[in-house]
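In practice, a research group might receive sequence data for several interacting partners and want a quick structural hypothesis before committing to experiments. The following worked case mirrors that situation: the sequences arrive first, and a predicted assembly follows.
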Amino acid sequence: MIFFEFAQRSIRLHWLRSLLAVLGIVIGVVAISSMGILGNSLVLSVGEALSDVGDTVVVYPHSGGFGGGPGVQTNDVITGRQVQQIERAVGANDVIPLHVGADRIEVGGEDGVAQVYGMETDDIPLLLEVTEGVYLRGASGAMVGQALAETYDLDVGSRITVGDESLRVVGILAERGVGFDINPDQAVIVSDQWYTSVYREEDYDQVIVKVRNLEDIEEVKNAIDATLNRRETVVDVFDTRMILETILETFSTISTFTTAIGGISLVVAGVSIFNVQMMSVTERTKEVGIIRSIGTRRREVMKMFLYEAFLLGLLGSAIGGMLSFGGGYVALLIMLQDTTYLFAPSSLVYIPYGMLFGIGTSLVSGLYPAWKAANLNPIDALRYE
Amino acid sequence: MGDRVSTDQPVIRLDHVSKIYPLPFGDVTALDDVSLDVERGDFIAVMGPSGSGKSTLLNLIGCLDVPTEGDLYIAGRNIRELSDDELTDLRRDTLGFIFQQFNLIPLLNVRENVEYPLVLKTRRRESEGLVEKLTRRVGLEEELLSHKPSELSGGQSQRVAIARALINDPEILLCDEPTGNLDTKTGTLIMELLEEVNQQGKTIIMVTHDPRIAGYAHRTIYLVDGKIA
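A structural hypothesis for the assembly, expressed as tokens:
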């Protein structure tokens, strides 16, 4: 249609001005797409890092928070009787009661503080994996987390002093990463027997239930809740899947936020398009007067200017879309040092999103100038010099 | 839709038309109770001093403006009763405009300028030889069809404007100082062309300051202070 040609020619005629407007859209689309890809990749990588703990229900004393243990005076504990109630409530699933605390440690003259977990030695293989040495059997040994072993240069057979007691390291745990149940990488794992005798604490700080069938998670949670919290709330029950979902939701929000920051540059681009279109309308006022006087309808004038804005947006979005691969790659390389998730469909979808936003922004920005052009008084427009 | 009048009625009828522009320091009456009948095939020159209402009259007949009072009929339609789209279509199909400044569209070449009103009307780019026929009729070389308006002389530009004004075969041609930007020789050639177009049946209303140019018209109307003198 002739109005589309008008738009093309106007862009070609004012190529520098058009180029700058297109550049704005390119930057906007790259920013919005790259930020979207980065945010999504963040969610995907966090999701993958945490997805192996989705089979766990964690029970904490109500309002007690996360751990008490030596040195921390608190009444928020789970008693042995309550552990038995949990065992009855969850049936065949494994119940692992834990003492959780922190204490001074000393290795070969080097001091520090570490988390101390006390648990039944039979339960350790249910929760943790050993890479060097063996699982703890007796009361006097200890296992240490991978990161702690590296920090203090601990090997199987090394001696570590926890509080005032010296323990022999029998095994080093495999690196586990961040978990919602326990974080053993920087911790010392001791037997329940040792923990209670040294810290004189019979009650537990948390109970972990490993659910064999993932579909039973809700049922297990409800069973614990119904048994222990019948009269008043004495424990808080979390399933790691729920926590995982909450965390992923948080990261999704962060992702949306970063994408929105990218969107700000698109707003700036929109202002640029608006400016270019207003200039175009002003420069072509007389032309509008001519075409209106010889029989061009208002909406045809509007169409002509909107085509121009659309073409600028389309061009900017197409270039921006292509460059977004590069932008996303660089963003992932810098922020995550990992570009694996660039080609995930949920990441790539941000490119057409960005392009649509680019075109949409151009059209919205071009709307008022086009309306203004269409509503010029033909007589005044014809007189315009 | 406007009131229809029979085809033997004037092609343009002004019935006690006034045009008043409201301004902050007081209303300005540009046209004051003007009545005029223009028959088909008429050639009328409109003369008068600056500010006498010539341009206002042309704008009203050109459906670019509507009267404040009175009725104006173009080809039997009362323009006061038409929507903006209907007025636009009337300009496109029934009226042809020829301006002093030529007013060609700079983005389009000569061919596209000439065929533009036809494209608006038919929604097609195919003029079926009409553009060539018209350019021959107005005495324009065909090789100029691919040129841009900026590459044309004044006389050539006005011939393009006349071809454009004629492409939809309008009943009325409105000319605003058509030779105002041309030298005497070229002006004479353009006037001879308009005279020829008039002889082929087009009604022409022409605003001019030049009595020699007005001499081509069948009759001349003098406007003074918005009234026909």
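Before designing any experiment, note the following. Chain A is about 55% helix and 15% strand. Residues 64-74 of chain A have pLDDT under 50 and may be disordered.
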